[in-house]
Amino acid sequence: MSSRDTLSSIGAGLGSALLFLLVLTGNPLALLLSYFGHLPLFVIGLWRGPKSLLVAAIAACAALLLLGGPLPFTVFLVVIAGPATMLTRVALIMRADDSGKLAFIQPGIILAAMALAVAVMMIVILATVAADGLDIQGVIAHFLSTMYSEMGVPLTPDVQQIIVMFQTYFPAIAALSWYLMVLVNVMIAQAILVRAGKNLRPTPSLASLALPGWSLFAFALAGASIAFSDGNLAYIARNVAVVLAVPFLFQGLALVHGQAARWPQKRMILTVFYIVTVLSSWSFIAICGLGIVEHLIRLRGNQPMTRSNEEDR
Q: What is each CA distance from 38 to 45, 181, 192, 207, in whole angstroms?
């Protein structure tokens, strides 16, 4: 690495650390900006490569350890630096495809692996709570009640009903918020680099996304565990199943994009589709189901159904 690359990496790391620390201010705008703590790391990693990202991550962690102490350092390492480093490293790996040509790892494999990693981490955390003989839902309900009280929100029957609703899937909601936050940061970083002509790998097409075979097995195992367990085990299995279903949401969206690309009105069709999706909470379940069906019988065949190869690129 040149001195210029090193300085760029250190700057990216310090920028990431600064965005992370904004959450401590309590300002709503600063809190929103803190969600982009991954962005500088992904930009430097997808531009300069994993070594530059490692330098950026070390710089950010060192700054947080000096300025904030062990707690901010640990949270940043686990939530931002570690995942960004591993994800970028995997995204830039090249291996031989079926035709023997070198190609980057398919995004479907990365999405499924991310979901599995989040699910495993969730199992470890929740199992640790359950090992102490505590009821997980009770712990989460107490946490949410305390949070609302500290925010000055009175615990009215309506608020208590919201707490009951959230506690059922709170681990999955928290995990998926992080999962989607990481994906959004990756997509923004890639878009910035593509516009600047600095990207190391091409932007994959959603219409060509395909999940690995083991992803359905993992989801089915979690689903079956719900039926054959109760108490804390059933609670963990239910939340894990929600996390492992998310890659099939993207698989369903891939099918929709592939089908829409067959028509001249592709953008209008997708606009209407996403409006309906946002307005209907049940649509997400339907799209996941569509993704599972696509995974099983490959409605798109070996290639996405498009009007031309160029339109999906």
A: 11, 9, 14, 26
